[in-house]
Amino acid sequence: MTGISAMSRFFSSKFKGLEPYTPGEQPKDTSYVKLNTNESPFPPLKAVTDAAASCRPLNLYSDPTCSDLIAKLAEVYKISPDRIIPSNGSDETLYFAFLAFCDSGHPAVFPDITYGFYPVFAQITNTPYTEIPLKEDMTIDINDYIGINKNIFIANPNAPTGICLTTGEIEQIVKSNPSNVVVIDEAYVDFGGESALPLVEKYDNLLVVRTFSKSRSLAGARLGFSFGSPGLINDLNTIRFSTNPYNINSMTLAAGIASLENEDYTIENCNTIIKNREYTTDKLRSLGFEILPSCANFIFAKHAGLDGGWLYAELKRRGVLVRHFTKERICQYNRITIGSMDQMNVLISELEDILKER
To answer: pLDDT per residue over 299-330, tens digit each?
Structure first.
């Protein structure tokens, strides 16, 4: 995080070693081709913004039951309403899951290269956790999680690699850990991954977490939703109603419902992103980049002749913003959000120029 000064003398010592999550840059001083935070390049439909503008009067609290949104989610995903919980972005449900299911006797486990919020949530909830290294090819070895007897958190497709496990592989993990909760974070599943949703009614220890931020063009609205057994959902609602029962504002509730009423638009945008991803992957490979196989709205790329940190900075200097991570195993990679075709062609052109100059 930037702009954070020294903590006050009142800050609890229990958070002394807490390392906050670092969000992607949201610069205000320069106009960039912004390919760093996996946002959709497509705006929400006018019907969605109109719904938000004409929502429940803002002098009244939002509906704490979120009943209309849950009913629409149940209709679209063909699942019982008692298996659904909405949230303020998917991050909130992930945090609730650590609060509800993890403690000193129920530790957590997740890959060493994955969504950066998992270790933060573990630290802030005082949960012991283990990070299991990805294989050399950056894939998850499901054998590392079979019968591990810990609460498991897996992003599928994984972030920042974009690599996806199959539903069959997820089922092996869930089935072998019946006394622990398995959380599958499907923030990017709409771009070509396999969803574990069909397993929810079969296993009472599976929680599938989704978001409106990526495929539904509502990152700024902060809306997520999750599927699980009625028992898991009741557990999470106990945490929700004990912390912030009005966690989703009226405008976001209305926008979410309107988005679900326009599924064709979401599907069309996802298909466009997939095509743009394939196009960009082919172009970058022809320039000598190594690209991991992605089922997400981003690619993870490195070039043997270019330092990852230097390339990030050089692209930023040229007006193209991508995401760079300093962790040793992945510091030579950059994560590139898939945007519009125009945005991807700007990126490709700049990379061509950089390689010519080098």
So the answer is: 999 999 999 999 999 999 999 999 999 999 99
